[in-house]
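Give me C-alpha cells for this 170-residue protein.
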Amino acid sequence: MLNERRVEQETYRHYVKTARRMRGSKYSLLVAKEWGTIVGVIEMGMQQYKPTTGGKEIESLATIGMICVDPNYRGQRIASALVDKCEELSLSLWNETIICADVEPKNEAASNLFQSRGYTVMAESVIVAVRGPGGLQERQHIRLVKSFAADADERSQHILKTDDRASNPA
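Here you go.
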C-alpha cells in the first residue's frame, strides 16, 4: 500500500510538471480536493489522430488521457464531476465539439463511466504512449468518443486509428 501511494504521488508530480510546461496550450490537469487532500485527478489535452479515409491531414481532438480517483472516495461521483468539467472546458473555452477518452481495457470502471455518459467505442485497440516508472511505454487502449454537434459525428468517423508515437506524449 505504501509503495502504491508513492507511485501515485510521483504520477501526480509528473502531471503537475507537464501542466506547467503546457501552460498556454490546450492542456488541462484538473484536481478534485476534499479538505486539502487530493481525491481525484483528470488530464485532458489535444491529441493528434490520422484519418482512416486515407487522407494525410492530421486531426487534433480534445482527449481525456487519464482519470484517477482515490479508492476511498469512489462511488461519490467525483469522476463524473471531473468529466463534466472536461466537457465544459472542451466546449466553452476550447470550442471543441468532439471529445475522446483513451481507457485501458482492464479499466472497466472508467469504460463504464464514459459509456454511461454517452461516449461510444470508436476503436477497440489503439496503441497509446504512456509514461510509466520505466519511462515511455506503449500500451493498448480503447478509444471512446462523444460528439456535441451534428457535424462532429461525421468528423469522428474519420478518426479511428492513430499513431500516437508521432504525437508529444506527456
